Amino acid sequence: METLRIMVFYQGGEGHWMVELNCDDQRYMRHHPPFRNMPRVIKESGRRQYVGISLTSRLCTQKT
Questions:
Q1: What is the largest CA-CA distance in the chain?
Q2: CA neighbours within 13 Å on the CB side: how many for 52?
Q3: pLDDT at 26 over 60
Q4: Staple partner for 4: which of 9, 10, 21, 31, CB 3.0–4.6 Å?
Q5: 2-11 and 17-21: which strand pairing?
Q6: Which of 44, 50, 56, 43 is nearest to 19 (CA)?
Q7: In the chain, what are the domain boundaries?
Q8: 2-63 in CATH: which number?
Q9: What are the pLDDT digits (tens) for 48-57?
Q10: pLDDT band at residue 63, thresholds of 50, 70 and 90?
Q11: 57 alpha-carbon distance from chain centroid
Q12: What is the mean pLDDT of residues 26-38?
């Protein structure tokens, strides 16, 4: 699996927060309790802390 980095947060069409990864893939980062609890995406300071962190992506690995 390839290790990827979060490049930027932005809001998608439905108002949910998404991230763009350095492989040009995008992922939802939804705060939707009780199913997905991600309060860090609500405030800009929380999102800023996650820019640059590593994620793994099977999809990006399969593309190459």
A1: 35
A2: 3
A3: yes
A4: 21
A5: antiparallel
A6: 50
A7: 2-63
A8: 2.40.50
A9: 888 988 877 6
A10: low
A11: 11
A12: 73
pTM of the full structure? 0.67
Q: CA-to-CA distance for 25 and 35, rounded, in angstroms?
A: 23
Return the pLDDT at 34. Answer: 66
In SS3 terms, the chain reads as CEEEEEEEEEECCCCCEEEEECCCCEEECCCECCCECCHHHCCHHHHHHHCCCEEEEHHHHHHC
| pLDDT over 70 (residue 45) | yes
Q: Is the pLDDT of residue 11 over 80?
A: yes
What does the chain come to in residues?
A: 64
Where b means 16+ CB within 10 Å and e means fewer, 9-36 reads beeeeeeebbbebebeeeeebbeeeeee
